[in-house]
Amino acid sequence: MTFLEYVLIGYFVGILTTAPVGPVNIMAIQHAVHGGFRQGVYVGLGAVIADTIFAAAAIFGVSAVTSFVEGQFDLIEVVGGAVLIIFGIRIWNTHPHLDDDGKGRERGFIGDAAAAFFMAITNPGAVLAFIAIFGALGDFMPAHGDHLGALVMVAGVTGGATSWWVMVCATVSHFRGRIDDHWLDRANHIAGVLLVAFGGLIYLKLALDLIL
């Protein structure tokens, strides 16, 4: 595979893992609503750092053991697909709330980014999601020893996550008065459908491999 393909895969994964509306998304939306675009992005950048660490650990970890589990890709994909579908259903059923408590919006760049980073880095579900996704990619992952390819894919994840935060904060700051809990529910429904669809595609690929 080419570096461009690795970047695009990482970019999609970065968006997919960042989109579900959890505590960090709520925090970023709150800051964008009350402090504008820049304040929301500050929060997002802290989460991007955590996502980059998770992605690097998952990508290099999966790549490192690839040569030892070449015969287990089907099992990995089955488990990974199931995890994604379960996560997607859970995200669909999550109902986040945008509480207007007015707290913590004057910390500045360092404080906002640090708060988001620690909130994201202590979320065990995030690292499981990265491991499930990258473990299920199989042949679309960089080969064992292809460190440059792995770094390029990590960069793609960082770019995807950053793009998501920029898009969300720009949208929220533009439509401040229209953001409510129903909007957050719709966002989670979209993210849940994407995760379930991605898990379903993994099973479709497995079925086609068996048929062909």
Structure characterization notes:
The chain is mostly helical and 212 residues long. It has one domain. It has eight helices and no strands. Helix 2 packs across helix 7, helix 3 packs antiparallel against helix 7 and helix 4 runs antiparallel to helix 8. The longest helix is centred in the C-terminal third of the chain and has 31 residues. The two termini are 22 Å apart. About 3% of the residues have low confidence.
Write the layout of secondary structure elements.
Layout: H1 3-18, H2 23-35, H3 37-65, H4 73-92, H5 108-121, H6 124-136, H7 147-174, H8 181-211
Q: What class, by secondary structure content?
A: mainly alpha
Shape descriptor = globular
DSSP strand content = under 5%
Number of strands: 0
Radius of gyration: 18 Å
Compressed to H and E, one letter per element, the order equals: HHHHHHHH
Summarize the structure.
The protein has helices at residues 3-18, 23-35, 37-65, 73-92, 108-121, 124-136, 147-174, 181-211.
What descriptors fit this protein?
mainly alpha, single chain
